[in-house]
Write a structure and sequence with these properties.
The chain is of the alpha+beta class. It has two domains: about 140 residues, no CATH class; about 90 residues, no CATH class. The protein contains seven helices and ten strands. Strands 4-3-8-1-2-7-6-5 form an eight-stranded mixed β-sheet. A hairpin with a 4-residue loop joins strand 1 and strand 2. The radius of gyration is 24 Å and the shape is elongated.
C-alpha cells in the first residue's frame, strides 16, 4: 500500500512551522521526496543482506510478523514483475520497451519453439547470465557452446535509442536465440518518482491537487521514515542544524531498534 504524499508533506510542514523553523516550497519538497524514496529503496538490499547473515547463523527471529528478512522482501514485492523482452533484429538481442526503470534483473527464462530444437514441444530453459568476456569465451569453445537447453546471455545497451524511447535501452544478448525465441525476465523496477501536485489559489497559496500528484510507492510502514529523512534534508536547505540533528537522532534510534 502506497504512502500518501500529501500526508507526508503536511506533516513535514507542520513540524517545520511548529517552532517557526522555516518553509519548504513544493518544488523543493518534490526533489527531496524523490531523493529520500530512492535512499530508502536502496537501503533494502544491504539491510536484507545483513539480516540474511543472521538467518544463516540462526540468530534471527522467524516468528510470523517478526521476520525482518520476510518484511524487507514484502516491501520489494510491488516492484517485482515478470517482464517480456522483445526481439530486436537490428541489435540481434532482446530489449525492454516499457517506461519504468529496471533496477535489477532476476531469473531469465527463454522459450524456444519446437521447430528450432527438434523437440515435440517448445522448450523452456533458464538462461545463465554471464559477463561479456565469459560469454565470448563460452560461445567460442565447441566443448562449452550453449544450447537451447542451456543458453547463456550477457547485458549491454543498444547503440542508439529505439522509438519511442529517447535514450539507449537495456539489451540482453542470448546464445542461442533468434526472432522465434521469447524471453521472460523477472525484473525489479525502481519506484516511480513521487510528486506533490498543486494549483495556485486566489491568495497565491499552493492548493493540493490529487489528480496531478504521484504518491510514494513505498510500503505504508515507511511513512515515518519518509518524514524523518525529508526533515534531515530540509534542515540542511534552511540551514537549521537543530532540525538535522533531531531528525538524524530519530532516524538512528529507529534503525537501532530494527536491527537489534
Amino acid at each position: 500500500m502506497a504512502v500518501n504524499i500529501n500526508t507526508v508533506y503536511t506533516t513535514v510542514l507542520y513540524i517545520l512551522n511548529k517552532e517557526q523553523r522555516g518553509y519548504i516550497p513544493p518544488a523543493e519538497f518534490n526533489s527531496l521526496a524523490v531523493q529520500v524514496q530512492n535512499d530508502i529503496f536502496d537501503s533494502y538490499f544491504p539491510d536484507g543482506n545483513q539480516v540474511n547473515r543472521l538467518n544463516q547463523s540462526n540468530r534471527q527471529n522467524d516468528t510470523e510478523f517478526f521476520d525482518m528478512f520476510k518484511d524487507i522482501s514484502y516491501k520489494l514485492f510491488p516492484f517485482e514483475k515478470e517482464t517480456a523482452f522483445t526481439w530486436n533484429a537490428a541489435n540481434t538481442g532482446f530489449i525492454y520497451t516499457g517506461t519504468k526503470t529496471i533496477y535489477k534483473l532476476g531469473e531469465i527464462i527463454a522459450t524456444t519453439p519446437a521447430s528450432q530444437t527438434g523437440q515435440p514441444a517448445q522448450y523452456e530453459s533458464v538462461v545463465q547470465l554471464t559477463s561479456k568476456s565469459d560469454y565470448t569465451e563460452i560461445t567460442k569453445s565447441k566443448l562449452t557452446a550453449p544450447t537451447a537447453q542451456y543458453p547463456i546471455c550477457f547485458t549491454t545497451q543498444t547503440a542508439a535509442a529505439i522509438a519511442p524511447a529517447t535514450t539507449p535501452q537495456l539489451l540482453i544478448k542470448v546464445s542461442p536465440a533468434s526472432a522465434t525465441t521469447t524471453l521472460a525476465v523477472n525484473c525489479l523496477f525502481k519506484p516511480t518518482d513521487p510528486s506533490w501536485g498543486f494549483t495556485v489559489g486566489t491568495l497565491g497559496q499552493y492548493v493540493y491537487n490529487s489528480a496531478t500528484s504521484v504518491n510514494f510507492e513505498l510500503d505504508t510502514s515507511e511513512q515515518n521514515n519518509l518524514v524523518i529523512e525529508i526533515l534531515k534534508y530540509a534542515g540542511i536547505i534552511i540551514k537549521d542544524p537543530q532540525i538535522v540533528q533531531a531528525a538524524a537522532q530519530a532516524s538512528q534510534q529507529e534503525e537501532i531498534n530494527l536491527k537489534r
